[in-house]
Design a protein that fits this description.
By secondary structure, the protein is mainly alpha-helical. It has one domain.
Length: about 90
């Protein structure tokens, strides 16, 4: 279980860097990080930092499609973690 915690902390840190970088690029009108890439980071577990940053730095929270996909991935991760906690899913490394 500790491996999962370390993994989630790492992927969320990396996701936050990419998301924050995209915000800075948007301000400077530079080439942006594609939304597909940001969604991949969310799917890999970085959704928790991205959801938080959406509101702290006010980035992407007005894009309805991005918003819905992100929240769908958040729900997916929460369900997976609850199932893991309850023993419905077995995760042994």
């Amino acid at each position: 279980m500790m491996y999962l915690l370390y993994y989630l902390l790492s992927i969320n840190f990396i996701s936050a860097i990419f998301f924050y970088s995209d915000k800075k690029k948007a301000i400077k009108n530079k080439q942006r990080i594609p939304e597909k890439i940001l969604h991949w980071f969310e799917l890999l577990g970085g959704v928790f930092s991205i959801i938080t940053l959406m509101y702290i730095i006010r980035h992407k929270n007005n894009k309805l499609k991005y918003y819905w996909i992100t929240y769908l991935l958040l729900v997916m991760w929460i369900v997976a973690l609850v199932c893991l906690y309850l023993g419905i899913i077995n995760f042994n490394i």
